[in-house]
Design a protein that fits this description.
Blueprint: H1 2-12, H2 29-32, H3 47-69, H4 75-93, H5 107-125, H6 127-132, H7 139-159, H8 162-177, H9 192-200, H10 209-231, H11 233-245, H12 251-264, H13 270-288, H14 292-306, H15 316-324, H16 328-357, H17 370-377, H18 382-392, H19 397-412, H20 422-456, H21 458-470, H22 474-488, H23 494-504, H24 506-511, H25 516-528, H26 538-547, H27 551-561, H28 563-574, H29 586-608, H30 617-631, H31 635-670
Helix pairs in contact: 3-4, 3-10, 3-20, 4-5, 4-10, 4-20, 5-7, 7-8, 7-9, 7-20, 8-20, 10-19, 10-20, 11-12, 11-17, 12-13, 12-14, 12-16, 13-14, 13-26, 14-16, 14-26, 14-27, 15-16, 15-23, 16-28, 16-29, 18-19, 20-23, 21-22, 22-25, 23-25, 25-28, 26-27, 28-29, 29-30, 29-31, 30-31
Length: 671
C-alpha cells in the first residue's frame, strides 16, 4: 500500500515543477505552499489598523538597526523602548481569547496597547532623573511600575499561554509570602516597593538579561532571518536540500530536515520555524506516502534541532558566551558535534522508516540540479558567510548582524530575479518585528522569575537542593537538572529557555564538577526539547495543525524521532571531548565521536525497530544495552558497545543479502 502511494506521489510530483523552468530543475516554493488549515493565533489586521501596525513595526525595526550599527543606548533606555514597541504591537494582533481572532482590535486592546507602551516608555523618558536620585522610586514610579507588571502578565497570557504566567506568579508570590514558609524555603521578606523596584526599575528584573537579549541579539537575528526569507534564501535552501536528498528513499522528509535545520539555526523559535517551512515540507511528505502525524513530527524535530545548531543557535550562542564569559567562537565550535549527532539520528531514523515502508524518492528529472541552484540563488548565502566571518574575527554579534542585514539588500541585487525592491524591504522590516513579539514578551515575563531568584536567593537554594539529593553522584544530579530544565521551559521560546535553565539548573552541574560549557549545553538541550515533548509540545502542535493530524500522536511521534536530543546530552556529559574537542587529546575526541555515532545508529534503529530488516525483541534489547554502555563513563564500555552494534549490524546485513540472493539462484536453476 505504501509503495502504491509512493508511486502515485512520484507521478504527481510534477505538479510542483514550474513548467517554464522544468529543464532547469527548479522547484517552485510558492506552489508548494498549499492551503492548509493552520489555526492562527493572531489577527489579520485590515484597513487603517494594518497600516498602523506596519508603520510602528517599521519604526521599531529601524530603531533596532540604528542602535545596533550606529548608536548603542544605555540598557535602561534601549530595553524599555524595545518593550514599548513589542507590547503595543502585541496587543494589536493577539486577542484576549481565540474567539476574538476575527476583526480588528477592540477598545480594550487599544487601551492595553497604549498603557503598555506608555508605562514602558515612561522608564526610558525618566531614565536620567531616576539615575540622579540613585534609583530611589517615587510614588508615581511605583504606580506606573505596578501597571506595567500587570500589563506584561496579560501580554504573556495572550502570546504564550497560562503556563508562564502561573510560573511567574508563583515566583512573585514567593517574594511576598516567603517569611511564612517553613524551613529552608523561608526568607526575611521584601516590601511591595522593593519588589516593584526590583522588577521594574532595575536590570535584574523585567528589564534584565532576558529582555536585554531580546532587545539586541534576538531582534537583530530574527530580522536577519526575515530579510533572508524575503530575498529568496528560503528558496535556495529548499532547492539545495531537494537536490541533495530528494531522490533518496523518503526524500521529501529528508528535505524537510535539511531545509528546516538551515533556517532553524537563525530563527529564534522552533514553532516559528515549523510555521514558515512546514507549509511546504509537510504537504510534500504526505504526498509521498508519509502519514500526516509523522510528517508533522519530522518537521517539528528538524526545526527544534535548528536551535542547537551553530552559528546562531536561535541567538542563544551569544547569550551563552556572555553568561560563561568566554569567546563566542568557543561556544559555537563546542556545539557543532552534538548538533551533528542530533541531525544524523533524525535523518537516519527517517531513512529507516522509508526503507521499512518501501518508499522511493522523487524522480531525478523532477528535482533541482545542484549547479543550477547554486548559479541561480547561491549568492544569497553570502550574508550568512559574512555573519560567520565577522563573528569569528571578533566583531560584536550586533555589529555583525547589522552589516549582514544590510548586505542582504546589496547581495540580493546581484541577480535580477532575487533583487529586493522597496516593498520587499518594508515587508522584511514588518516581518522581523512581528516575529519578535512573542519572544520579547516571553523574555519580559521570564524577568519575573530571574528577578525573584536574584532577590530571594532561590536559585542558590535549587542548586544546593539538587546537589544534596544527588548526594555527590552525577547521574541523579543530571536527571534532576534535566527534569527541572524540561519543566521550566514548557511553551517558551529558545532564548527564554536558556536564560531560565542557566539561572536555575546549570549552576548545580557546575558545582558537581562539570565544565561550564558542558553543563550549560546539557540544560539547554533539555530545555529545548520542551518544544517536542508533550503535553506542551508547541513545535509539534504547530506541525499537527498544518498536517491536520492528531495533536498528541504528533507530539509523541516527535518525541520518538527526537530521541537523540534526550540521549546526546548524556553522551557529551560522560564524553566531554565532544564539546571540548578543541582542547581535548585527539584520541579522546575520536573515542567520543565514535561513541556518538554508535549511539545515533542505536537510537535510530530502536526508534523504528528496523535496521536492514525488522528487528526482534532480543536484538532491540542488545541495542538498548549498547546505548547504556556508551553513556557509561568508561572506555571499555564504549568499546563493548561498538562491538555489539557492529556485530549485530553485520549479522543483519549478511542475512538480508543472503535472502536477497536466494531467489536469483533458484531462478537460474529453473531456467
Amino acid at each position: 500500500m505504501a509503495q502504491r502511494e509512493s508511486e502515485k506521489a512520484q507521478e504527481s510530483a510534477g505538479e510542483w515543477q514550474r513548467p517554464e523552468l522544468e529543464g532547469e530543475g527548479v522547484i517552485d516554493i510558492d506552489a508548494l505552499q498549499v492551503q492548509s488549515d493552520v489555526p492562527s493565533t493572531t489577527r489579520q489586521l485590515t484597513a487603517h489598523w494594518a497600516f498602523i501596525f506596519a508603520a510602528v513595526a517599521v519604526v521599531a525595526s529601524l530603531f533596532h538597526l540604528y542602535t545596533a550599527g550606529y548608536r548603542p543606548l544605555p540598557a535602561m533606555e534601549q530595553r524599555p523602548i524595545h518593550m514599548a514597541s513589542m507590547l503595543f504591537l502585541g496587543f494589536l494582533i493577539y486577542p484576549a481569547a481565540k474567539s476574538r481572532l476575527a476583526g480588528n482590535p477592540g477598545i480594550t486592546d487599544v487601551i492595553l496597547a497604549l498603557v503598555g507602551a506608555g508605562s514602558a516608555y515612561y522608564l526610558a523618558y525618566n531614565y536620567l532623573d531616576i539615575v540622579m536620585r540613585g534609583g530611589y522610586p517615587t510614588e508615581l514610579d511605583i504606580v506606573v511600575g505596578t501597571i506595567f507588571c500587570l500589563v506584561v502578565l496579560e501580554a504573556a497570557r495572550r502570546t504564550i499561554g497560562m503556563f508562564l504566567v502561573v510560573l511567574s506568579a508563583l515566583f512573585l508570590a514567593y517574594l511576598f509570602f516567603g517569611p511564612s514558609l517553613p524551613g529552608v524555603l523561608a526568607h526575611g521578606g521584601f516590601s511591595y516597593e522593593r519588589i516593584i523596584r526590583q522588577m521594574y526599575m532595575s536590570t535584574e528584573g523585567i528589564f534584565g538579561v532576558a529582555v536585554g537579549v531580546s532587545a539586541t541579539y534576538v531582534y537583530l537575528f530574527i530580522l536577519f532571518g526575515a530579510f533572508l526569507q524575503k530575498s529568496g534564501t528560503t528558496t535556495f535552501f529548499t532547492n539545495l536540500a531537494f537536490a541533495a536528498a530528494g531522490h533518496s528513499p523518503g526524500g521529501p522528509a529528508k528535505v524537510g530536515i535539511l531545509a528546516s535545520g538551515m533556517m532553524g539555526m537563525i530563527q529564534g523559535s522552533s514553532a516559528a520555524n515549523v510555521a514558515s517551512t512546514g507549509v511546504f515540507t509537510i504537504p510534500l511528505m504526505k504526498r509521498l506516502g508519509f502519514r500526516g502525524y509523522f510528517a508533522a513530527a519530522v518537521e517539528a524535530v528538524a526545526s527544534c534541532g535548528g536551535q542547537f545548531l551553530p552559528p546562531v543557535m536561535g541567538a542563544s550562542a551569544f547569550i551563552m558566551a556572555e553568561y560563561l564569559q568566554v569567546p563566542y567562537a568557543q561556544v559555537a565550535l563546542g556545539a557543532i558535534l552534538p548538533a551533528a549527532l542530533y541531525y544524523a539520528a533524525v535523518y537516519l531514523q527517517v531513512h529507516l522508516r522509508a526503507r521499512k515502508l518501501g518508499m522511493q524518492g522523487l524522480p531525478r528529472d523532477r528535482l533541482p540540479i545542484v549547479r543550477n541552484v547554486v548559479l541561480s540563488h547561491g549568492h544569497l548565502v553570502l550574508p550568512i558567510f559574512l555573519l560567520i566571518g565577522m563573528l569569528l574575527f571578533g566583531f560584536t554579534p550586533l555589529f555583525a548582524a547589522f552589516f549582514s542585514i544590510i548586505s542582504v539588500i546589496f547581495i540580493s541585487a546581484l541577480r535580477a530575479h532575487t533583487r529586493m525592491g522597496l516593498r520587499d524591504i518594508v515587508d522584511a522590516l514588518v516581518l522581523g518585528a512581528r516575529n519578535t513579539i512573542s519572544t520579547a514578551i516571553a523574555c519580559a515575563a521570564v524577568g519575573f522569575i530571574v528577578g525573584a531568584a536574584a532577590l530571594s536567593g532561590i536559585g542558590l537554594l535549587m542548586t544546593q537542593s539538587i546537589i544534596g539529593i544527588a548526594d555527590g553522584n552525577l547521574l541523579p544530579a543530571l536527571l534532576l537538572a534535566a527534569g527541572a530544565s524540561l519543566f521550566l521551559s514548557f511553551g517558551l521560546p529558545t532564548t527564554s529557555v536558556y536564560i531560565i535553565t542557566a539561572t536555575l539548573a546549570a549552576p548545580s552541574l557546575v558545582e558537581m564538577g562539570l565544565p561550564p560549557l558542558v553543563a550549560h549545553l546539557f540544560c539547554y538541550y533539555w530545555g529545548g526539547v520542551s518544544a517536542i515533548t508533550p503535553p506542551v509540545a508547541l513545535a509539534a502542535y504547530v506541525g499537527a495543525g498544518i498536517a491536520n493530524a492528531p495533536l498528541m500522536k504528533t507530539g509523541f511521534t516527535a518525541m520518538r524521532l527526537g530521541m537523540a536530543a534526550y540521549i546526546v546530552p548524556f553522551v557529551f556529559v560522560y564524553a566531554p571531548a565532544l564539546v571540548l574537542w578543541q582542547s581535548a587529546p585527539l584520541w579522546q575526541v575520536a573515542v567520543a565521536a565514535a561513541s556518538g555515532v554508535v549511539a545515533v545508529i542505536c537510537m535510530a534503529a530502536l526508534g523504528e525497530q528496523y535496521a536492514f530488516r525488522a528487528l526482534s525483541l532480543p536484538k532491540l534489547g542488545l541495542l538498548l544495552v549498547a546505548v547504556i554502555l556508551i553513556v557509561a563513563p568508561a572506555l571499555w564500555t564504549s568499546v563493548i558497545a561498538v562491538l555489539i552494534v557492529c556485530g549485530l549490524l553485520g549479522f543483519e546485513y549478511s542475512r538480508t543479502r543472503s535472502k536477497t540472493s536466494e531467489p536469483a539462484a533458484n531462478t537460474h536453476a529453473t531456467d
